[in-house]
# Entry
Amino acid sequence: MNKPTLDRANVLARPPAAVGKPRSAADLLSAMADELGIKTFFQKAPRRIEGTVAPELLHSFAANLRNRLGVEHLSAISCVDWIDQGQFELVYHFWSYRDSTLMSAKVRIDRATAQMDTITDLWQPASFFERDIHEMFGVYFRGNGDLEKYILSDWNGPPPMRKDFVSRDFAHEHFQFKTYDVPWDERIQGGYYGSRNGEEKKNG
Amino acid sequence: MAEKLLTQRNAWDRVLSSLKKRSLWMLHYCTGCGAIELPPTMTARYDMERFGIMPMVTPRQADILLITGYLSVKTLKRVILIYEQMQSPKYVVGFGSCTINGGMYWNSYSTIKSLDQYLPVELFLAGCMPRPEAIIAGFNALMDKIDQGKANSWEDYYKNYEFYRKNQQHAFGDIETHHDIPSDGAYFGILEADK
# Structure
């Protein structure tokens, strides 16, 4: 696979909007509505803004957020498995150094196809999060050239953080446990646990 | 039984094992939370060195490999590489419940459950966590085993290498090791000892 070409000069250049007086969350929301035409965001806490973005619009949303509003920093990308609704929710956390405000953009994608556009051309460190989500949830990021195994280097099973992966069953299938025959019940006289013969012992 | 074993071994063996038991150097592989019990064991409060047990920084000079806590499949691979570098006789001590049956990670998909399926374990220290008193009691038991000439489970890795390799293969697949265990066992005469 080809690695995405990175316009490093463009990426490293600090956008002009990143410098200036701190804006309040309400100012940021109005700026988003005026400049970007986005009205799905709301203020969740004094310094926290949250909202939903359509998956095909996220890349341009992130680029505008960075270059026009001056939100420079990508804190993290996290993933939630909504198995009942058949969706994955990707949460992109952006941090504005100028305003000290966290902005979380939530994107819902289809769980069966599980594909998303990469944002590594805007933030190169996003590659780490995308690789992690690909390994743990099986979400494929189009345009990310490096989706190799990361933490689970010897892993052959299904993505383990999906809700339909039952860790206990997997552990019992793949590992052997020791078996004990410890006479606990004889030692604990009148305890909570019943004896091995099936006779219930009462307290006292 | 112990007396019979003692009488079967010649005087030189008995001198050697009583010297061996007083100079155990320990490599501690601290993956889990169990490492927090080791500093008080080593330092002035409990002072492990009065028994001749000393921490050592390299596997090639160590006698004890202390596995303190859980091992994920990924770290197990590194532990096996470390173990095969150690000089015989070598003693693996499983520390805490995690090495016995998974401990609190019993339902985890990425940690191994029983260490003795992958390496020959000389001694288990049960507990979550074992206190320094328990560690010292365990090491005393190990010293007694060495003194009586019974601490021979490291030979089991040469004798039953197929069993260990099969479990290792099931856990993580191939391993790039520099040691040919069956050939080493034949060369040092470990495999012929039983015949």
The helical segments of chain A are 8-12, 25-36, 58-67, 126-137, 167-174, 184-187. The beta strands of chain A are 41-45, 48-52, 73-82, 87-96, 101-110, 115-117, 140-142.
